[in-house]
Amino acid sequence: MGKLVYGDSDIDIDIDDRSLAHLQIVIGNKLRRGESFFFSWKDDPAVGDGRSAIWLDRAIPLYFKFSGSRAPAINREWIDALNASANSGTGLVFTDEPGQVSGPASSLRGHI
Fold first, then answer.
1. What is the C-alpha separation between 71 and 25, in angstroms, rounded?
2. Which residues form the DUF7882 domain (predicted)?
3. Rounded distance, CA 84 to CA 109, Å?
4. For the residues of 22-57, what is the DSSP string, one character each?
């Protein structure tokens, strides 16, 4: 289980390494172009089973911490789906990998 650490705050989000690798590509591309946007996800039931969102901007430091040493294979279809979401008016909404059964991957665990 990897982590996305948001800025200088105490917010860190537990995300499996495969999902985190896909998010890093999408978020990195948006921020590289100077585009700010919301990133939202469904919370894991352990932290309330609601929804959370953070504002992403190139001025806010992000730290992607992977638990494994190997980079996972990248699913281009998932990157395209996440990019489409990130470019929409609602911002990047984390979704399951295409072809996967909905489950824990669509829930992230944030800690404050």
1. 12
2. 1-97
3. 23
4. HHHHHHHHHHHTT--EEEEEEEPGGGTSSEEEEEE-
Supply 106's token pair.
């669509």
- Fill in the DSSP letter of residue 71: P
**What is the three-class DSSP state of 101?**
coil
Beta strands 92-93 and 37-43, pairing class:
parallel
Task: Compute the distance between CA of residue 57 and CA of residue 92 in angstroms, rounded to an integer.
Answer: 13
Backbone angles phi, psi at 23, to 5 degrees: -65, -40
Domain ranges of the chain: 2-111
Question: CA distances (Å), 99 to each of 75, 81, 95, in order?
Answer: 11, 12, 11
| Predicted confidence (pLDDT) per residue in 67-92, tens digit | 999 989 999 999 999 999 999 999 99
